UniProtKB/TrEMBL annotation:
One of its GO terms (molecular function) is serine-type peptidase activity. Residues 331-387 form the Peptidoglycan binding-like domain. This is Serine protease. One of its GO terms (biological process) is proteolysis. Keywords: Hydrolase, Protease, Serine protease, Signal. Its EC number is 3.4.21.-. It comes from Blastococcus tunisiensis.
Amino acid sequence: MTETGTRRRPTEGLGVDAMLAEIRRRELKALPDGADGPLAAIPTGELVAAVLDEQKVVYGVDDRRDLFEVTDPAVQRDADAVVALLRESHVRENGDGTCTIVAQRFADAEGLCAGERFGDQPVAAFCSGVLVAPDVVATAGHCLDDTTVGSTRFVFGFRMATATSAPGTVPSRDVYRGAALLGRALTGDGADWALVRLDRAVTDHAVAPVRRAGRIADHQAVHVIGHPSGLPAKFAPGATVRDNGPADFFVADLDTYGGNSGSPVYNATSHEVEGLLVRGETDFVDTGGCRVSLVCPTSGCRGEDVTRAPVFAALLSGLGGAQPLLTRGSRGPEVTAWQSLLNRVQDPDVAVDGIFGQATQRATRQFQRASGLTADGVVGPDTRAAMAQLLGLPKAPSSGELPDGFVRALTAVLAPVLPLLSAAAQEPVDAEALRALGRQLGGVVATLLRVLATQHSSPAP
């Protein structure tokens, strides 16, 4: 009894970290109440109730939000690249341009206690991913392998429209099939990632910018967007890097659950993908009749592991051959060159800014229709070839002949020159001579690059 005559609770003064550790120990080892340890005499349900009370008072731990609640346009752009991974059996084609998502009510699927957040929402996804190239998704390595990639469906736009409007169907154009596993790593205490080529290029969603080198700063603010427990997409801000020491991953205090595996973790300042969520704490604990979630408080628990983006980003530079696919969201000198060429052959002009936005996509589709191509807004080999034929430009060397890096560098250097050459080539005076000059220039450069490639690959004396 205390001095006021009130009975002291068994959990009073124990500390939330100690209680959490005991709960997780029991959950992981399937230990019954009273098995062993200093807190063994306290029932699990009582420990859970005490932790939840303490978290509500001190931490305010669960920052997850539905995307319809998010007003920041930068975060919405981040979310546009996020994709849900579903089993083939959970996506049914309706034959009318839509697909039905086969889902369960969250509370029923997990046996949740009353009042658990998002309990009435549907769950369908088993992992999350992010679009890192026009036809490539990055996700966690433990989410799929060679035997399951073909039966996995990648669904964009699985999100709540309002608090009560659940996504029962999605447009068929937002559903993709895994076509090939391009690379994968899975180690228990290190890198965990996979790159999947989709059955076709994604044209209605932006490619996420990905860190290619270096590492995130200590204590940098980050946020995660994905499908916790298979739910419609959630945005979880308010996290920071806690441990930046490991070579292949870093640790952050993210509010994540199973289903978040493969979710992109964004730098909250630059909105660049810093990595993929791959490992974390126990999601739910059994209170003796139903389950509750225990989100890791800011000051305690181990945190969540995030595979660093540069670990897998090196493979991205080689995707798409010597000249990469360009689609909405692409950036860089290749986009600048393409915009310049578009402006030579049609109106209205697009801004030559190196950003493949809506105007560039619209102009690309216009050019493709005029050229008798599929108007998907993606700049690939056929679209480039049509442009080269129209302008009389030198044919680009194939990726099998030259290293990818040399061709990229050449594209950047010649981007301002090629449109001028093509414009001059259409003048009535000496047009044929100028066309010949253009072809000769292409041959000279190609020969030079072959020499450089040979020297680059030769062993040092």
